[in-house]
Predict the 3D structure of the following.
Amino acid sequence: MKKIAIAALPWEESKSPTGKYQSSFKNISLALGGKRDVGAWGGGHPFDLQLRRVPPGAAVCPLHAHTLQWELFVVLSGTATVRMESASHVVTAGDAFVQAPGTAHQITNIGTEDFLFYVIADNCPADSTYYPDSKKWMLKPQRKIFRMTEADYYDGEE
């Protein structure tokens, strides 16, 4: 059995150029021997577990929807809104919620203290993520971000 002390793990930071999107995180699954974006089929874990900390006024990331990945959130402290395509919901310490594939969501800290939560995500062999506000896509495991342009089925084939 591999065991780690979560408190001893270093905080890593993710921050957009203006700081609108920012959070710190502890990659618990990776510390336990998992591999980034690789599930059990490739020697990783069937899920990813992170501890996330979001400062007041910041969002974790832009509004996005996964095509395959499920995410389970467990709130430890603070207050945030979960923006969805058609509604927003307030979540606080002790709440848990699930984001199903295809459901666009975004978490923003609306409190005066850090918003702290666990996120557990299944580790799909592949996933794509759509960002409705900016019309971008991301492919995993490649982690490539792009915008699509429509093309004819045979375009470039003959």
